[in-house]
Amino acid sequence: MLPKGIVSTGWPRVKAQARMCGIEYDDWQDGLGRCMLGKTADGLYAAGIGGVVISICRQVGKTFTIGTMIVMLCILSEYPLKVLWTAHRSRTSDETFKFMCSLVRKPAIARYVDGEPRRANGQQEIAFTNGSRILFGARENGFGRGFDNVDVEVFDEAQILGERALDDMIPATNAARNPLIIYMGTPPKPSDPSEVFSNRRHDALYGESDDTLYVEFSADRDADPEDRSQWRKANPSYPSRTSESAILRMRKNLGEDSFRREGLGVWDETNTVSVIDPELWKNGEVTERQDGGVVSFGLDMPPDRSALAIGACMKYADGSAHVELAEYRDTHRDGVAWAADWIKARWSRTACVAIDAQSPAMVLLPELKARRVPVKVVTANEMGQACGRMLDLIQAGMLRHLPDADQPQLAKAVANVTTRPIGRSGAFGWNKTGNDIDISPLVAVTVAVQGAWTTRRRPGRRQKVMR
User: Residues annotated as region Disordered (predicted)?
Assistant: First the structure.
């Protein structure tokens, strides 16, 4: 996705300087550089506001491509160019610095370098004779804060970049003559704090940003992981520079989802932003549950039956609700029978117990019936209503919950849920963003909400506890 207004590019000068230094680029690198350094009629970078966003798999050569470009920009700059190159992890930052040091030791480049690179931890730096500098550091160590007059910022491992870290660093480019910000990374794992990377991808793909360059190298979403033609599509350096054995090594040592992300560049979901707005979810956080409502429970299990979640919903007279993950247990250790006894012990004070008809938790139906606990079986159409009701309550500020730190399994599900269509009427159900995500805690509280809103049962007294 190109930014608007490109009329020229600074790439030919960079490419020519690189050739003088003994560096040649492949076609894909040539095209990427031409787009990255595209300029508008005023001579400023076309991506100078939204930045350059590159989603790319491993073993392609992104550090070589971007690193050599940055060095050439420093050499060619008519004023001292200040570059910050950050990675999330210290190890990645150190490896990048090591590569860059070996690069600038080449005789054709070394004559532009001012002395030896500075190697002190937290102060890694390469200086050039024209006053340009490249500074390296890890965000996990706080690197990047407090700088000013920065011209170029490179965010490596951008899939692990939160808004707070970005807020600390972006103002450093405010006074730059022609700033350029580069985000590069692999598709994020569901557990990565990837809101910056994901949001920029979303904005580019859905036409919500015309001042950003977005480049994605990836195989088809439904690609066979063994298909070599898909390897070539995802990795333009294969097989000429990246060997088959290198990719096979990744294939062998990474899980299925991880290989699709890191080896094939495939994002876990079509819509990369969680369907539940994190700010709205955060707004519903309370430290204590309010008494006085009527409680319902919902049960769910992930498809692999590795855990059993019991969600709780306390519905209040004003139409608001409080939800909690009441129980979440490893079924390999605890089995599932305990859940029937757990529910039975609370049934006299409970309005409804609900289970999605498609859930593996339906295995508990006979056990609950044997204990004279009726179960609301939520049909596919009702599941669509339930998910819609959950979103409506969240958006209206009518759904409360405990802090995410107190319920990490529910928090993770909320942060990594997307939707799937149900029927053709526009209804939807929850869908996980990857095979390594368990959304059963969210499904459990959702069917608990559905039960609370549809049951006619009214227990003898209002509830004070949900556990």
Answer: 220-243
Residues 351, 373 contacting (CB under 8 angstroms): no
Q: Give per-residue pLDDT as tens, 127-136.
A: 999 999 999 9
Measured CA to CA, the distance from residue 237 to residue 269 in angstroms comes to: 25
What is the pLDDT at residue 467? 57
CA–CA dist 457, 327 (Å, integer): 23
Q: What is the pLDDT of residues 159-212, one digit of tens each?
A: 999 777 788 888 999 999 999 999 999 999 877 878 789 888 988 887 778 999
Q: Please, which residues have CB within 8 angstroms of residue 60's CB and are 6 or more apart in sequence?
A: 217, 235, 236, 237, 242
Tell me the domains of the chain and their CATH numbers.
8-262 (3.40.50.300), 278-454 (3.30.420.240)
Contacts of 456 (CB under 8 A, 6+ apart): none
CB 22 within 8 A of CB 106: yes
Helices (H), 276-418: 278-283, 331-334, 337-344, 365-370, 380-395, 408-415
Return the higher-pLDDT residue of 15 and 467.
Answer: 15
Average pLDDT over residues 437-454: 96
| Residue 96 Cα distances to 53, 85, 328, 418, angstroms | 19, 9, 42, 35
Judging by DSSP bridges, how do beta strands 307-315 and 321-330 pair with one another? antiparallel
Q: Which of 308, 334, 339, 309 is nearest to 324 (CA)?
A: 309
The pLDDT tens digits for 328-373 are: 999 999 999 999 999 999 999 999 999 999 999 999 999 999 999 9
Confirm if 218 and 84 have CB atoms less than 8 A apart.
no
Please list, residue by residue across 173-203, b when 16 or more beta carbons sit within 10 angstroms of its beta carbon and e when fewer do. beebebbbbbbbbbbbbbebbbbbbbbbbeb
In this prediction the pTM is 0.64
Q: How many CB atoms lie within 10 A of CB 111?
A: 10
Q: How many CB atoms lie within 10 A of CB 465?
A: 11
Give the whole-angstrom CA distance, residue 101 versus residue 283: 47
Q: Are 101 and 109 in contact (CB under 8 A)?
A: no
362-276-302 Cα angle (round to 5): 25
